Amino acid sequence: MTTYLECEAEDSTCRGLSDRQPDYACQGNGEGLWDALGLLQIDMGCESIKSQSPGNETGCSRNVLRKQRNWEKIISAKKRKRKHERERRRAKLAEERDPAPQFSKRDLKGITRERLLGAKETGPRLCVDLSVTTHMTKKEISRLAAQIRRLYGSNKKSQKPFWLYLTGFVQNSPIAEECLRMNDGFSNYLMDVTPESYLDLFPLETIVYLTPDAEEALEDVDPHKVYILGGLVDESIQKRLTFQNAQERHLQMARLPIQEYMVKKVNAKNYHSTTLAVNQVFDALSTYYETNSWAEALKAAVSPGKGYVLRDTIQ
């Protein structure tokens, strides 16, 4: 038998649930009563939290907020630590890969300029004789202007540069116009450009004329010598022109030691040539001057299309 107090409690519970939870029906059995009392307890707890923290609309207690803030601080500290560790590892890796100091572009330009100007006093000298360009076509002159640009670029990158001369460079001549048209900043190149002949600039005993038709092979690069290159390109039909010019002036002549260090390689066109572009000859001289190895020098200068390979590479 249900007592008066139990009926009152059940009626009170039903009224409370009807006010707050219209979707729930009050049930007469004991299980429904306990479920309703549990919901009422949760609801009363939330009301208590709201009364303690009237400014907190989420209903979270101060303790929960404090824990949340502490947790956010921990997460933030871990993120900063991981970021710092990544930066430290990245810096260490960069230091291992490139221990050299980092310079700005302005600093690098200053270092390059100082190195090139130093070659004017102590380095070997190389001169491109442009007086022979009168024998060349317009296409060949354009090719020569491009080769001069590449030659200057290689010299800038070299750790032991040459001091460069362009002799027979006449203003408003076809080669002068092509050099100015094709080469950005040509007027600012760190080299001597003059209309004079190399014969008027250097003592004859210091001149070595490099030509592929010479009998003697070049053995060494002497910083006290001046190496002359005839300003011709591969397409020129003027055979032995540079050799004849040097021979008429009784100059010392030499060729790159291609036959001494390289051999002919069989190719489909059966083509073999020891005639190189002026920038390729310079690459050979520059590489030898840095490495003191003709094998390395010729490997850098003689392209496979010339039909020659180093002796050591033949099986």
The radius of gyration computed from the alpha-carbon positions, rounded to a whole number of angstroms, is 44 Å
The total of beta strands comes to 8
Structural class: alpha/beta
Biggest β-sheet strands, sense, barrel: 6 strands, parallel
Helical amount among residues, as a percent range? 40-55%
Low-confidence stretches: 1-31, 39-53
- The string of secondary-structure elements, in order, is HHHHEHEHEHEEHEHEHHE
In DSSP terms, counting alpha (H) and pi (I) runs of 4 or more, how many helices? 11
Cα shape: elongated
Strand order in the sheet with the most strands? 3-2-1-5-4-6
Give the N-to-C terminal Cα separation.
Answer: 113 Å
Mean pLDDT: 80
Relative strand content = 5-15%
Can you offer a commentary on this structure?
With 315 residues, this protein is of the alpha/beta class. The protein is 51% helix and 10% strand. The protein contains eleven helices and eight strands. It has helices at 4-20, 30-52, 62-97, 105-122, 138-157, 174-182, 198-201, 241-248, 258-261, 278-291, 294-301; strands spanning 125-129, 163-167, 192-193, 207-210, 226-230, 252-254, 262-264, 308-310. The strands form two sheets. A six-stranded parallel sheet has the order 3-2-1-5-4-6, sandwiched between helices. Strands 7-8 form a two-stranded antiparallel ribbon. Strand 2, helix 6 (174-182) and strand 3 form a beta-alpha-beta unit. Helix 1 packs across helix 2 (30-52) and helix 10 (278-291) runs antiparallel to helix 11 (294-301). The longest helix is centred in the N-terminal third of the chain and has 36 residues, at 62-97. The radius of gyration is 44 Å and the shape is elongated. The model is unreliable at 1-31 and 39-53 (pLDDT under 50).
